[in-house]
Every structure is written in structure tokens, then in C-alpha cells.
Amino acid sequence: MKVSDAICKFFETKNVEYVFGYPGGALLPMYESFRHSNFKHILVRNEQGAVHSASGYARISGKVGVCIATSGPGATNLITGIATAYMDSIPIVAITGQVNTEAIGKDSFQEADITGATEPFTKHNYLVKDPNDILRVLKEAFFIASSGRPGPVLIDIPRNVQDAHIDFDLSKEINILGYKPTTDGHSGQIKKIIQRIKKANRPLIYVGGGVFSAKATKELREFVKITKIPLVNTMMGLGAFPMDSPYYGGMVGFHGNEHSELILKEADLVLIIGARMSDRATMNFSSFKTDTDLIHIDIDPAEIGKNVVNQIPIVGDAKNILNSLNKKISTLKIEDWLNKVNDIKTFTENFVTTNTKTINPKIALRLLSSISPNDTIITADVGQNQIWAAKNFKYYGDRRYLTSGGLGTMGYSLSASIGAKLASPNREVICVTGDGGIQMLLAELGTLAESKAKVIILLFNNSALGMVKELQEKKYGKNAPFGIDYDLSPDFVKIAKAFSLSGERVYSNANLNKVYQKALSSEKSFLIECIVDKDFGTL
Amino acid sequence: MKNYVLSLLVENNSGVLSRVSGLFSRRGYNITSLSVGETENKNISRMTIVVFADEPTLEQIKKQLNKLINTIKITEFDYSNSIQRELILVKVKSSAKNRYQIIDVAGIFGAKIIDVISDEITLELTENENKIRSFIELLKPFGIIEFVRSGITGIEKKSI
């Protein structure tokens, strides 16, 4: 069997539904095989869009996202998306075509050392020179991408290797000598944790995106139900715990809730679950008092003790560890602490001004939150729109919030929304973005239209890079903003329509409900362009 | 901050050295020396890496190295659990007058004389780091022209 056919057959054994990609000369054999395969190919407009779509797909389906690009510029266009997936621990297998084996290393046409280039931000990568290695490599890649701490794996395949013939034999078990992730927490450490939690007066749970990677939201909710310990989350952990719960203490971090930071500072024990304690989420590590005890649960041992010193480390899968804890832990007597948490929450409640001439994004998102289904998926870009969507859309039920939390990649939202919708066609998907972010990968509107995935795009247009403007003002003064204005913004509604999508511009919150209802009932993807005042703040 | 010796068993594939050394450079770790060669199993190589770090950084280095898929095992060496050696080739200025003094120094350390020409001698010594350092100190007064060191390599002692 041809290697390219074997790859398709392998994808079918892994139930790959979609491959997001862009063809090229170094992928001719692959695309010829794709033509006869069962999975669907989504043709993107830029390879970066392929990885982000695969990322959105992976995060909602819980499966490995697959993307493909040709050699040279195709492969290098994947880099930002791969680095984004690496920072957020998203399981992705990226296939790149490569020039023929005999042309490698000769600066051949469309040749790039993509394994070298992606080495720092792939979990692992391969250059397949021997056709007989391909099935082993594919098996290993899917296993590595989806096990332990998930992440992107890249496979670079020369064109002549794709054309070679091999026996399709998957019977050989994979055995990667250096890769044996620890998934069960050490029983001694679990015992220690339980003893320490029982002694705590003001315990707090601190949840990151690892809870989603471990598919442990049910276990987390059970843990809170049993123990009554309050919880805060990072931006990546949004949606892991319902915001309408009395135990919910808000979002921590640079743009988090003020009350969450105060709660964090009051805690005498913080149980960190699946969070990498980034500088943004820990406010440059000033979030904790120095004498607060920390318990850190993470599948990646390198995350424990990397940024904050922890008293009790426990390496393993959050689902397994929470399951073990749930069997042995009981309700704590911490009513006073809970009352205090709720007092702090009420005291610092954010009141939103309604007096704006144009769209108030906070009110807009609160409105949409109240009328959207409980399992709505929000994808957010990077910038003000990301923070507005994180803090004003309410996450409960099965609502999810997808964003580029680690790398902070603008342009993520639109492509991620396509993948998310394809992974879960019955759920509403709202792509929140800004005029800066959407223009990074604007042509992906074409991918969206062609894919037939129905997404509502909520575009906050303030004709500027709002968050950079704020940072400049904060650091250099009111007159400092420079290089952030779009003097010529396109007519986004016309552009949407040019891509055969629907769209409407909204100037005030009063009209938003009507347009949103129209978007909900629309059969096509619908772009709602919200005109926002340039000076409207993030917080 | 001090030097620590790490011994890594890694898969003997192309790109592994780049992954290991790249990890050091992009995370800002200070590498003092690195030596690498195939083991008795041709699929496995051993790298001996000397790093200059404090203890928390060393811990992080070990964890990050462990994360690499090609890393099979990491052992931290000290003098009690390992035998460590380094090779030095050193070229020293010599004259007819002091040649025998240099040969005496070589004799004390068990160094080999591998090349002699009219005004220089090249010596070879395989020893632990301390002895190499002393050897260099004793040769300095004669005038060292240049030397090359292989970096430390080591092997675990049999546990008793």
C-alpha cells in the first residue's frame, strides 16, 4: 500500500473526521489519497487557520485535531498555530510535506527545516525518511499528542516517502522508552493532601485548563460538592465550574476579578489543579501570601515548583487524583470562610455603566449570555474582546470558553470557532473578536462559509488595537498611543456578505437583541459588527 | 551556584542532541560541558552534561530534560556514586633546558607525551576534573600554547 494511502487508513482507525489543511507540491500524493478517503478535508485560506481550527476541534471533541500543510512556507505558516497549541496543551497532529529525501539539506525549492523550527514548541516531532517507519510514527504521534500533558506533534514527510509502498500492519505495540506519563497520583501524597486539607481553615481551589485536558470537570464539581471548598479559576479554567455557584470565587490574573485576588490572598491553603501558574495568572507571582500552603496537582512534573514553591506536589491526571480524593474526603467545617468569600464577592461586585453612545460590550455580552443556550461555546480572540467575553459572558451548564491563553495569539478566534462548531454541530458557537484580531486571518471567513459550520461572529469594532492602546497609556501617558489606529477599516458586514455570509452592523445595545435573534435563526453564519467607542475600557 | 554533573541516557536518533542543547539555550540554563557517545546498545547514547546552576534551577533542568520524549533516564552524578573522567590535550612551550621538568610533571600525573618538536611538547591526560585543573596549574609556568578538553564523561559505580 502507498504510504499516503496508509496514512488515510490510519486516520480512519483513529476516527479522524476532519483534516484542516492546505495542499501543495510536496503533498500531491497525500491529497490524491485524501480524495478517496472517508474523512472530510477543510480547505483553509492560510495554514495558521488550519492549526487553530484543529485546536478548536480538539478542545470541543476531546479528540486529536489534525492539520496538514505543504513544505516550506506552508509548514512555516503553521508555526504560530503550533506554538499556540503548545502553550495551551492542545492535542494536535500536524502533518507537513517535505521535499524529496535526496533534496533535503540543499536549500531546495520550498524546503524548510520544519522539525528544527518547531522543536521548541512541539511536544515531539518527526522527520520520516524511511517509509517503513510511518505507521510507528503515526501511532506514537497520536499517543504522545493525547496522553500525559497533551500537546502538538509534527510529522514531516518527504514527497517520495508518501509515494513509497509499505505493508499496512498496525499490530506492533508502541513502546517509547523515554515516555511513560504518570497518571495515577501517588497514594502517599494523596493521603498527605487529605490530611492537609482537613487542617485548613481557609482552603481554596485554583483551577486551570488542565481540568479540561483531563476531562475532569465532573470530578471537580463533585469534589466541591463534598468538601464545600470555594474555587477560583484562571482564564484557561473558565467554564470548568459554574459561575452561578455560591462556591465560585471568580477569575484570577492580570485581567481577573478584583475579588478573586482578595480571596486568594486570604486563603491559607491553595489546591492548584492543572494550572501552570503563569506570570499573567499569578500577577507576577504576587497573588499569594508567602506563608500560604500550596498543593499542586499536575500531570507535567516540570510545572510543579517551576514558578511557585509548593509544599505538596502531586503528579498525575487530575481526573484520577480527584476521583481518589472524592472517595476519601468529607465535608469541611469552613462556613465562616465561605461567608467571608461571599462577602468579598459582594463588596467588590462590578457595576457596569450603561451610559455609552455606542455599543457597551459588557452589556452586550451579558445580554447574549442571558439569552444563549447553556451549552454555548464562546471562542475569543486576544485583546479587549477576550477579557470582555471572559468576564461578562456567564459560564455555567456546559458553556465553554476557548481562547489563546498562553501565547496570546490574535486571529485565533475565527478559525477555532470553525473547528469547535464542526466538533459539536448542535451547540451554538459565538466567535468573539475585535477589528484587529479578525483582520489577522480575515480570509478564514471563506473557510467558514465553505465549511457550512454555522457560527455567530460578534465583532467589536473600535477602529483600534484597544488593549495595546491601554497598555501604552498606562506606561507612557494619555498622549502616548501610537501605531494602534486603523484609519481605514473595511466594511466588515460587506466583507461577510462577499463571502456569502450574513451580517448586520449594530450601533447601540438597544438593537442588539433583535439582531442576535436574527443571527440565531439564520441558517448561515452571521457577523454582528458592534461599533464600540475607542475609549471604552477593558475593565 | 555550582557545577552539577548529569548523565542522560537518550535515544540514538538524529536531532536528539539538538533537542537537548536547544532546551538549555532557550530556557537560559548554563551548560559547562557536554559529551556524548553511543553506549553498548547502539540505539541508546549517553550524554554527560555539566551544568552551572543553583538547586531549584537544577531541579527544573532535570524535569525539563525528562519531558523530552527521547530522554530515557537521568542520573545526577557525584563522586561517591560515579567515576568521572575528562580528556585533555595540552601543548606546552619547551626548550632543551626545561624539557625534562615538563616530562617530570607528566610523569607525576600519568600523562602521555604524544608529540615533541623542538620548542613544544603535546601531552595527553585522562583524569577527573580536580586533577586536570592541578595539571594545568603546574604546566602554566612553562607556557601553555593551547589546550583542548573533551568535557566530562562518567559512569555509575556498581551499587553495593
TrEMBL record, chain A:
The keyword Transport does not apply. Pfam families: TPP_enzyme_C, TPP_enzyme_M, TPP_enzyme_N. It catalyses: 2 pyruvate + H(+) = (2S)-2-acetolactate + CO2. GO terms for molecular function: acetolactate synthase activity; flavin adenine dinucleotide binding; magnesium ion binding; thiamine pyrophosphate binding. It is an enzyme of class 2 (transferase). The keyword Transferase applies. Binds 1 thiamine pyrophosphate per subunit. PROSITE patterns: TPP_ENZYMES. Residues 1-114 form the Thiamine pyrophosphate enzyme N-terminal TPP-binding domain. Pathway: Amino-acid biosynthesis; L-isoleucine biosynthesis; L-isoleucine from 2-oxobutanoate: step 1/4; Amino-acid biosynthesis; L-valine biosynthesis; L-valine from pyruvate: step 1/4. Its cofactor is thiamine diphosphate; Mg(2+). Belongs to the TPP enzyme family. This is Acetolactate synthase. It comes from Helicovermis profundi. The lineage of its organism: Bacteria, Bacillati, Bacillota, Clostridia, Helicovermis.
From TrEMBL, chain B:
Its EC number is 2.2.1.6. It catalyses: 2 pyruvate + H(+) = (2S)-2-acetolactate + CO2. Keywords: Amino-acid biosynthesis, Branched-chain amino acid biosynthesis, Transferase. GO terms for biological process: isoleucine biosynthetic process; L-valine biosynthetic process. GO terms for molecular function: acetolactate synthase activity; acetolactate synthase regulator activity. Residues 5-80 form the ACT domain. The keyword NAD does not apply. It is an enzyme of class 2 (transferase). Pathway: Amino-acid biosynthesis; L-valine biosynthesis; L-valine from pyruvate: step 1/4; Amino-acid biosynthesis; L-isoleucine biosynthesis; L-isoleucine from 2-oxobutanoate: step 1/4. InterPro entries: Acetalactate_synth_ssu, Acetolactate_synth/TF_NikR_C, Acetolactate_synth_ssu_C, ACT-like_dom_sf, ACT_dom, AHAS_ACT, AHAS_small-like_ACT. One of its GO terms (cellular component) is cytosol. Dimer of large and small chains. Belongs to the acetolactate synthase small subunit family. Catalyzes the conversion of 2 pyruvate molecules into acetolactate in the first common step of the biosynthetic pathway of the branched-amino acids such as leucine, isoleucine, and valine. NCBIfam families: acolac_sm, PRK11895.1. This is Acetolactate synthase small subunit. The lineage of its organism: Bacteria, Bacillati, Bacillota, Clostridia, Helicovermis.
